[in-house]
Amino acid sequence: xxxxxxxxxxxxxxxxxxxxxxxxxxxxxxxxxxxxxxxxxxxxxxxxxxxxxxxxxxxxxxxxxxxxxxxxxxxxxxxxxxxxxxxxxxxxxxxxxxxxxxxxxxxxxxxxxxxxxxxxxxxxxxxxxxxxxxxxxxxxxxxxxxxxxxxxxxxxxxxxxxxxxxxxxxxxxxxxxxxxxxxxxxxxxxxxxxxxxxxxxxxxxxxxxxxxxxxxxxxxxxxxxxxxxxxxxxxxxxxxxxxxxxxxxxxxxxxxxxxxxxxxxxxxxxxxxxxxxxxxxxxxxxxxxxxxxx
Length: 294
Known about the structure:
This protein is of the alpha+beta class.
């Protein structure tokens, strides 16, 4: 326990430049210059800042928001509330007490399945102007470091299989796999990001000490697998979801892919790879996950 607490208090710091949008360890998007520190949130004010950023990013109605008290509870019962804080050079007014402006957070809670303890990462958010620079991945890596220090080997989270960029991050940049599909997990939500569609979710399994994950994070060759199924997501899905006139097209893709995922998972296949083509289309690659080589 002590190791995990120390790691959280120390944090990870990197510099950020608005001129770059690369995914280096210390770079995020945006137009300001400063240093980003990733660390555990502990003060009530930091929990309240996470709550506010949640509302800003997802634009939920109040009934769909995770309340401040849940952030507080998660931090006290063995979960994670991790923040990315930008220390601006211009010392803006929203830089509270020199601690930096919260530009991202991750929330996780402990879970148990079949006697096996793991962490469930419920939310990860990055303020819009700081996206596409690798900050989300940095926060996931911090979650992994802190979780491993406390003896966790598995972290799970759910993600929308229609979100191409997020799927690529989860499968290709973090090394997660998926072999479970939850239909309309949260019901129809108030977030416009969902486009009024059912909240279908894939369950990402991140075996944080596995050879697969270690190879992905080290940018080393990973074990090859025979691709036995491919499931496509068109780049136009975002436009289709956003407009009422084309939402039926998005729903048709979701329903077709739902059937294909459930059929593939029933046959023992898992999502092991993800591709994006030059037009922005996404493709899940499914094969057999070798538990013995995990």
